[in-house]
Design goal:
The protein has 16 helices and 13 strands. With 441 residues, the chain is α/β, with parallel strands linked by helices. The protein folds into 3 domains: 47 residues, Transferase, Pyrimidine Nucleoside Phosphorylase, Chain A, domain 3 (Up-down Bundle); 214 residues, Nucleoside phosphorylase/phosphoribosyltransferase catalytic domain (Pyrimidine Nucleoside Phosphorylase, Chain A, domain 2, 3-Layer(aba) Sandwich); 89 residues, Aldehyde Oxidoreductase, domain 3. Helix 4 crosses helix 10 and helix 15 packs antiparallel against helix 16. It binds uracil.
Length: 441
């Protein structure tokens, strides 16, 4: 087989065979195929696309390019949850212990922040003492006994994706549906769970800006998961505003803990229940989604989910008291308030811009090497659709230095638009996508 022929066939819009796909993924993993040929192929795929079969083969080949985690020795049905990335998205921090309280085993490998979107591992590491690096036996033991354990994704998982992702990042080939779907799903399949729940974000703060593109991505990923024998469901959720009222690592942990304690913003509560219910439904802990929703709402209300979170934090080295007393979490020393310049309604939030502000404040990474400020971020006092009076506080920013807080506040001000009329609110979530239409949650 020759890489030249594979390139030529994809350039002409032909479908690649399974052998051709396995050949270039193997060559990518071993380093035998040079970057210029891989980059040319990525561009050809970006322009010509891939059919469902090719996308599934690419996913499987990338999943098998490294370690395939085996979770079969951990008791229970293991269900994974993945978000395509958002701003203020702390749903895993609530939905994972909540699903555990519903009887699901959550043995989860999560990632760090990517660009302007946050990552679960960075958030959890803002809890003093919490470790996300555990020996496999400890990971299995905590997941098996507590029902939930979240660790950092191993570098050995899907190394071909790691290589291709780095090339895509610098060759303008990130925004390709088959490449995004296979990149995400290769890591999900390698993580070894039995079922997968996907939260596909849509809107200005998401990778996919339109509902149509988000639906297509969700369909592609559900099809890949199902073909691989893993029951998979995807929920399309809105990202035209940040989730909840907090953006930033410790601030988001605090908000998630408040939801687990029965308080906190309604959108975070509703979405967490919906995701945890789908995890319970896929794990057959409830006969249908309606019963699963009732079960999840009850486990949140009666404190069982909070107890799972406290136990997970304790077993992973942190102080479980932070759940009820978040004062123990870091908070940026420098603060600035953003005040409403006029009266009206908070009519638009530039969600991607807000994500970028949180990076400026120190909550995300400007470069791969940047270190995070766990206490940095934004606490909103108002959200999309709220009425505001001139001079009222819209948000407070937190950073480690006055100049960073000043710069972040100036940037944030530009992301919040006050309108004279009340805006129409987008729905929190749009639709569930599953492989068989009649089996929709
Ligand atoms: N996240 C991934 O892991 N890969 C993509 O291609 C996009 C988002």
């Amino acid at each position: 087989m020759h890489m030249y022929d594979i390139l030529n066939r994809k350039r002409l819009g032909k479908a690649l065979s399974r052998e051709e796909i396995e050949y270039f993924v193997q060559g990518c993993t071993t380093g035998d195929i040079p970057d210029y040929q891989l980059s040319a192929l990525l561009m050809a795929i970006c322009i010509q696309g891939m059919n469902q079969e090719e996308t599934a083969w690419l996913t499987m080949a990338m999943a098998r390019s490294g370690e395939m985690a085996d979770l079969s020795h951990i008791p229970g049905v293991k269900v994974d949850k993945h978000s395509t990335g958002g701003v203020g998205d702390k749903i895993t921090l609530v939905a994972a212990p909540l699903a555990a309280a519903c009887g699901v085993t959550v043995a989860k490998m999560s990632g760090r922040g990517l660009g302007y979107t946050g990552g679960t591992i960075d958030k959890l590491e803002s809890i003093p003492g919490f470790t996300t690096q555990l020996p496999p036996e400890t990971f299995a033991d905590i997941a098996g006994t507590v029902g939930v354990c979240i660790v950092s994704q191993s570098g050995e998982l899907a190394p071909a994706d790691k290589k291709l992702y780095a090339l895509r990042d610098v060759t303008a080939t990130v925004e390709s549906l088959p490449l995004i779907a296979s990149s995400i799903m290769s890591k999900k399949l390698a993580a070894g769970n039995d079922c997968i729940v996907l939260d596909v974000k849509t809107g200005d703060g998401a990778f996919m800006k339109t509902l149509e593109d988000s639906r297509a991505l969700a369909r592609a990923m559900v099809s890949i998961g199902t073909r691989a024998g893993k029951p998979t469901a995807a929920l399309i959720t809105d990202m035209n505003r940040p989730l909840g009222m907090a953006v930033g690592n410790a601030l988001e942990v605090e908000e998630a803990c408040r939801v687990l304690c029965g308080e906190g913003p309604e959108d975070v509560r509703r979405l967490s229940i919906e995701v945890a219910a789908a995890m319970a439904w896929l794990a057959q802990k409830a006969p249908d989604m309606e019963t699963a929703r009732t079960l999840a709402a009850e486990k949140l209300r009666d404190g069982s989910a909070r107890e799972r979170m406290e136990e997970m934090i304790r077993r992973q080295g942190g102080d479980p008291k932070v759940v009820r007393h978040p004062e123990g979490l870091p908070q940026g020393r420098a603060k600035r308030q953003i005040l409403a310049a006029s009266s009206g309604w908070l009519g638009a939030m530039d969600t991607q811009g807000i994500g970028r502000c949180s990076v400026l404040l120190g909550a995300g990474r400007e470069t791969k090497e940047s270190s995070l400020d766990y206490g940095a971020g934004i606490r909103f006092a108002k959200t999309l659709g709220d009425s505001v009076k001139q001079g009222e506080v819209l948000a407070t920013v937190y950073a480690s230095t006055d100049s960073m807080a000043e710069e972040g506040a100036k940037a944030l001000e530009k992301c919040l638009k006050i309108t004279e009329t009340q805006p129409e609110l987008p729905p929190l979530f749009y639709d569930w996508i599953t492989e068989e239409h009649e089996k929709r949650p």
